[in-house]
Amino acid sequence: MTFKTTKLRDAISFALIAGATTLAGTGVAIAQEAQTLDRVEVLGSRIQRSEAEAALPVLAITRQELEATGLTQVADVLREISANGPALSLNTNNGNTSGNSSVNLRNCGANRTLVLVNGRRWVSDNGLSGSVDLNSIPFAAIERVEVLKDGASALYGSDAICGVVNIQTRRDFDGAQFNANYGQYTDGDGARETYDFTLGGSTERFSGLLSMSYNKQEAISAGDREISAVPLFGFPATVSTPGRASPVGPYGNFTVAGRNIILDPSRPGCLPNQVCTAATRGDFRNYNFLTDGYNFAPDNYLVQPQKSYSLFGQASYQLHDAVRFSTDVFYTNRTGEAQLAAQPLSPLTISSASIYNPFGTNISGGAFRPTDFPRVFGQEQDTWRFSAALDGFFDIGDRYFNWDIGYSYAENKQLQPKNGFYFSTRVNQATGPSFIDSTGVARCGTPTAIIAGCVPMNVMGGPNGFTQEMYDWIAVNPKNVQKSTLESVTANISGELFPLPGGTAAFAFGLEHRKEFGSSEPDPLTAAGLVLGDNPFLPTRGSYSVDEAYLELQVPLLSEVFLAKSLELSLAARYSDYSTFGDTTNPKASFRWQVVDDLMFRGSWGEGFRAPAVAELFQGSATGRPAFQDPCSDIASNTTFRNSEATRAQCRAMGTPVGYASQLSQTYATTGGNPALQPETSVSKTLGFVYSPDWFSGFDTYVDWYNITIRNQIGALGAQTILNECYYQLNQNSCALITRDTTGAVNGNPGEVSAIMAQNTNFVGGLETEGFDFGAAYRFETSSLGQFQLRMDSTYVTYYGDVGQPERGTLNGDGRISSGNVVGQVASGSSTGAPRHRLRSSLTTSWQYADFNASVTLEYRSRVRESCTNFRSTALALGAVDPQFLDLVNMCTDPNLIIDQYEFVPGSSNVVGVPRITPINYLGGTTYTHIQAGWKAPWNAKITAGVRNLFDKDPPLSSNAFANTFDAQYLIPGRFIYLNYQQTF
């Protein structure tokens, strides 16, 4: 089948690949497609057709372009496309991502982006949330990545609410190829090395390919970058409250006779294997929250180390001229770890009979951090998939039909060994009564009731007083195991139907049966709540099955008439029957209107859904420690309404004493699955055009508007929301979820919030996002200087917030106060980063001449706004002691901004705005510059070198980032230099 190349066809090709060179360092010019095209299945349609007939909002990234980025993980490539939002990666300020990396199209959430490999679903990551770990897909096996920036549940089912990523693997490869890539930061760390070898061949009927790869990423510590070496850059590292340093360090924090005390770092305190006498009390002084905090930041990783081995094989055999058998196998083994500062031993009760208690009274609410023993979260993961299929074609009259049937099975299993945690039973034993025996050895218990093997724990002797033997007695290394599987059987047929005025109608029809299973098995001690510092959770185990059928119709309405070179309508619908919640049907309609050769319009409307994931349905109760501010605390930032009689009465009724002041910044919150969950639902709309003017040769441009609404959203109320609804709205349902410690067992301060329950639920309201994708490219060639290409690709978000786009301060669909449009803001407290940029854009200039190529890419992210409370409150607290620190309030862009904060009048649904100082900070617009150059050597080799972040651009300072002072979605500070060698045999 031969087609004439036209301006519009070039424009459509541009639309299909628009955005590919948003990728940092991409310097490969887009080659013109061959004029003879086979029928293929393009992402976003199940009907096989020539690529020239399709005009979809699809971003396509070829293998050549992937290699030119200088990156070695597909997650890192997708992280830099303009339509992507904050997503998990190996970069984190202070957290354990289990080594996962994901994609988050439209900032809807990674579990609302469907990931396919060769058109089939990839298995869920170890979190069982429905998102996919892209690090489990071998980079060396990838031939092409396609990104559909539109909802597509009508064709692909659940999860395709905000887009689809399809990864096509290498096929029909003849010969052998070896790649070696090495890079590191100019700071001398974060080295990355990758090696892969691919071997393939084919005969008249058989083709096969085998690819093996090894990838290694070394760690970067937060202490190795100035901006992340302290909790708040520009401030002393030891300011804890206000501030961000931990109030618990190696010199302890103890409550004795109503006083918060700490061991003076210049004094020895209690000595190992010696009875600590009353004379040692003088070694302790009052705890100063401005100077005695612990700087935990240097102990954390900015980049988690990871190592992976991957194997990919595929083969196909032509059984008959019209029937082919194909199969592929993936296997990836990856290991890695996350590291955080040592787990505080808290809360501690130290017996008056302990040899290491000089105060002669029981001490409750004590805390101590053994800083020589950091927490390490290991990851040992195996992912594999097997698939087999028969496909072929047949003719009926002059009608052409394609068919395929296939089976696939995938499994993802991760072992999570942990170090740096403590067996709470042994901690209690080690801080209980103790004595020195006749041989001079410290023993737990009493001379008549010795606890065998126990080593008394000295938490009042500073870092030198806590010995390896003490750690070994209380240490425990829990191991959790998580597993997910996916099994599916599919059958599809597509072909031509009947002639219409605009051409021949076509269809696609398919059936699928799928079963997904997931389990998460905690260490028995973790499940029992006996591992101090390890969030306890009960086992998760569950599965569901689904039967589905879809139908797609392509209806060509007009062709070669005035103002309609062609007009085509596509209709699709998918029926899904789930074992968990029942059935759902989701339709979609789209059109492509080619007005003239130079101009094409396109648009779509579709309904979508996301079925509840295994974790959301069946997760065992799990306990975390979210940050919160207690509404009942007399030191809270209260207003007249917050201090109302109704709120005070509610607080007293639930056990807070008069004058109660909270000392906690985190509390325990327990979440869990809900088998009664219903699916999320969505509506997506797009409208755009592609223009390739005949009068401007080589120039193409496109604009696409999009709007996505998601309702019935699955989630759990946050701890702060539950507290606010209980005490400000007097919502008794929320109050029932809160437990307070009325005896002071938590930290010696009666009244503290000790537990909050928050089960998964469906929220009536949801998320809406709206914006534009737009881009342009200009290609030209000179006889003496070679080929040039300029390409710009951007996403501009106009709205992100509650459905219906309510104004800030009004009620959303769930009857809660809306934050309004939060585009251009940073979600607070995320260890992996959470900026919602209004504009992300990339401009790449590339050049190619003979065997040489080079490119320069400018990657832009617009400014975002955040709360600046940390900078302001810390500066004011320090300034009250030493006025020289007052100037630090100017680290905020506007430290004294007064704006209305909206809240409910207690006991009613009336909302009022209360003017309040709300300091803000702007993270300025940031542009990164990446360069690369390549040479094709005469011995069938390619050598490529590049520099990412050429001008060593630092990320903007962030007051609201978690654990340090820059958002983890920005690039790690420093230049990254890489070199790649490719040899073809």
TrEMBL record:
* Keyword entries, A-Z: Cell outer membrane, Membrane, Receptor, Signal, TonB box, Transmembrane, Transmembrane beta strand, Transport
**Domain TonB-dependent receptor-like beta-barrel residue range list:** 361-950
Q: Which InterPro entries match?
A: Beta-barrel_TonB, Beta-barrel_TonB_sf, Plug_dom, Plug_dom_sf, TonB-dep_rcpt-like
Keyword GTP-binding in record: no
Q: Where is the TonB-dependent receptor plug domain?
A: 53-164
Protein location: Cell outer membrane
Task: Please give the superkingdom of this protein's source.
Answer: Bacteria
Query: Which N-terminal residues, if any, form the signal peptide?
Result: 1-31
Q: Tell me which stretches of the chain form a coiled coil.
A: none
Q: Spell out the Pfam families in the cross-references.
A: Plug (PF07715), TonB_dep_Rec_b-barrel (PF00593)
**What family is this protein classified in?**
Belongs to the TonB-dependent receptor family.
How is this protein positioned relative to the membrane? Multi-pass membrane protein
| Name of the protein in its database record | TonB-dependent receptor
